Amino acid sequence: MSHITKIDIEVTDLTALKAACCRLGFTFVEGKKTYAWFGRFVGDAPLPEGLSIEDLGRCDHAIGVPGAEYEIGVRAERSGFRLLWDSYQRGGLEQKVGKGAGLLKQAYGIEKTKLEARRKGYSVYESRKTDGAITLRIQLGGGR
Amino acid sequence: MKKIEITFGPQGEVTLKTEGFAGKQCQEASRFLEQALGSVSEETLTGEYYQVQIKDRLEQKRE
Fold first, then answer.
1. What is the pLDDT along chain A (144 residues), one digit of tens a residue?
2. Taking CB atoms and an 8 Å cutoff, what residues of chain B touch A140?
3. Which residues, 6 or more positions from A82, have their beta carbon under 8 angstroms from its beta carbon?
4. Are A63 and A21 in contact (CB under 8 A)?
5. Looking at the domain assignment, is residue A67 inside a domain?
6. Which of B27, B39, B45 lies at the smallest CB-CB distance from A7?
7. A138 assigned to some structural domain
8. Which structural domain range is residue A30 located in?
9. Number of domains chain A contains
10. Which residues contact B61 (CB under 8 A, 6 or more apart)?
11. Predicted-complex ipTM score
């Protein structure tokens, strides 16, 4: 092993996000300007950084999650896309996408990595671990 | 064999490891993925990285 890095995922690629939705059985609705949520800010959680109350419920695309009443909003920003969702239990999202939408971020990371690796002509092998983690092995060929 | 291994946790956490590279090559080889996925929050250089650096220096001295 030569080096190990930890990476914070940032969503910048809609193609990879759509592939992630497909992988999870979610529906990506391109151009949908609102996403379903409780509908009224009650202050039980802090506002997402840089957003106002009026921004809640508004987006550029939306993601529908089977079995969840609420949706995930995809908001275009200068450096990429921000995912917005209401974690209120009644909406059913957290049970389906995990805390902090972790399962969607996981799927996005996998699809984005596959796209980038294949663009360079590398082979990618996927394996699932028992704890829910998924590993991608990318072979770049050649020895030292 | 040069390899990059990336593990995606169910809470969105990502760990990238490289294997089989000489010295700084590992960082250059994985940069395209690190940049594509987001931002690096932590980087650790491992024994193999330093071993190759030492070997390179010894070879340079001999030349």
1. 578 999 999 999 999 999 999 999 999 999 999 999 999 998 888 888 899 999 999 999 999 999 999 999 999 998 899 999 998 888 999 999 988 899 999 999 999 999 999 999 999 999 999 999 999 999 986 544
2. 2-4, 29
3. A11, A48, A74, A75
4. yes
5. yes
6. B39
7. no
8. 14-109
9. 1
10. none
11. 0.89
Residue B44's DSSP bridge partners are A4
pLDDT digits (tens, 9 = 90+) for A67-82: 999 999 999 998 899 9
Give the number of A-B residue pairs with CB atoms closer than 8 Å.
Answer: 156
Asked if B50 is an interface residue toward chain A (Cβ–Cβ < 8 A), one would say no
3 state DSSP class of A77: strand
Q: Which of A67, A62, A68, A64 is nearest to A84 (CA)?
A: A62
On whether any CB of chain A is under 8 Å from the CB of B14, the answer is: yes
> Residue B12: which of A9, A117, A135 has the nearest Cβ?
A9
pTM of the model: 0.89
Residue A74 DSSP SS3? strand
pLDDT in tens, B12-56: 999 999 988 877 888 888 999 999 999 998 888 877 666 666 666
Q: How far apart are alpha carbons A61 and A32 in whole angstroms?
A: 5
**Which of B16, B25, B47 faces A5 most closely, judged by CB atoms?**
B16
In a domain? residue A2: no
